[in-house]
Amino acid sequence: MADMAVAPLTITKDRQRVVDFTKPFMMLGISIMIKKPDKQKPGVFSFMYPLSNRVWLCVMIAFVTVSLILFLVGRWSPYEWTKDGSKGGSPTNTFTLFNTFWFSLGALMQQGSDIFPRSYSGRIVGSAWWFFTLILISSYTANLAAFLTIERLLPPIKSADDLLKHPEIEYGTLKTGSSRTFFETSLVSTYAKMWQFMNANFDKVMKTEIQQGVEQVQTSKGKYAFLLESTWNIYWNQRKPCKTMKVGDNLDSKGYGIATVQGHFLRTPLNIAVLNLREIGELHKLEQKWWYAKGECGMDSKDAITSALTLSHVSGIFHILVGGLVLAMCIALIEFFIHRHIRIRKKKQVKSTGVRIVKKQPMEALKEVGYIDREQQPM
């Protein structure tokens, strides 16, 4: 009888009853293997992919809101009104409803406009909107390059729940081993339903060897998923013809260990050796060497899935924009009331002087001051 067994033995409670295991030298879990989907080239509307639909909607709402608030600020603030000599000195305002939308659009497109706010409140609105557009356009541009240059992989399956949602995709695992035991004894409803399907189609979906499952994944045209330990999944994905891939997170967590006879003296020195190799990084180095560096498929950067910027990524600039708009509204009201107070006080001062202004014709005014004789008739 052998004293120990060095192999990819998964540490389970049933095996622990008959042998002793060392500390795990590699962590793993049950994972999903599917056929690599065809790469999708950028579409006609790929320029909209860098931002999610909610972000696009919020940007449009922000654009309209800023334009309307800038219009109101222009009406409230007395510093946005100027006297136009061509209109008899009547006050005019450049921030009409059309002009405010044009100002906001010019800033959003990084082009500017021919009108600018003169009041403090208007400048606060403009500054907040400029900062918003600066961060938004920078984030959009950085993400746009990835969407236009990367041929994206869009797998139909990303988790075990997706397998239940796609009845047209069959799935299975090994007929014997810890992977089958996991599904057979699981109390999680998702995994229990998966075992019901696998047990009902046992001969069709269950495999004797891992290679059989991998070959069916490669030839099934995306209609079969194989459930196996993540170490084997990653290993086979790095082997030609490079048609398979691992999707989603592992369904559980466990480890490989070295088995020894129960109570054997080798268990303690083996544990120390495994822990030492892990601490100095030797186990990680070996994993990178044999699973990735010596792989036949390489690390294809094009396989990375680029995700759109969601609202949580850019919510900060919306907060700053809202804060700037609220501050501008408050300052516009303060400017309005201060100007109103000054105007009322000036009117009171004019009334208190007792000066009465009477409009007269120029000739009458000259007669009153004696420059023209009242009895003298014009020639």
UniProtKB/TrEMBL annotation:
* Membrane-crossing segments per the record: 55-76, 96-116, 128-150, 316-338
* SUPFAM superfamilies from the UniProt entry: Periplasmic binding protein-like II (SSF53850), Voltage-gated potassium channels (SSF81324)
Give the record's GO CC terms: postsynaptic membrane
Cite the GO molecular-function annotations of the record. ligand-gated monoatomic ion channel activity; signaling receptor activity
User: Which parts of the sequence belong to the Ionotropic glutamate receptor C-terminal domain?
Assistant: 1-293
Q: Where does L-glutamate bind?
A: P8, T10, R15, S178, S179, E229
How does the UniProt record describe the way this protein sits in the membrane? Answer: Multi-pass membrane protein
Record site feature (Crucial to convey clamshell closure to channel opening), residues: I157
Question: Sorted alphabetically, which keywords does the UniProt record give?
Answer: Cell membrane, Disulfide bond, Glycoprotein, Ion channel, Ion transport, Ligand-gated ion channel, Membrane, Postsynaptic cell membrane, Receptor, Synapse, Transmembrane, Transmembrane helix, Transport
Positions of disulphide bridges: C242-C297
Q: Which Gene3D superfamilies match?
A: 1.10.287.70, Periplasmic binding protein-like II
Origin: domain of life? Eukaryota
Q: Where in the cell is it found?
A: Postsynaptic cell membrane
Name under which the protein is recorded = Ionotropic glutamate receptor C-terminal domain-containing protein
Q: Which organism is it from?
A: Potamilus streckersoni
Lineage, highest ranks first: Eukaryota, Metazoa, Spiralia, Lophotrochozoa, Mollusca
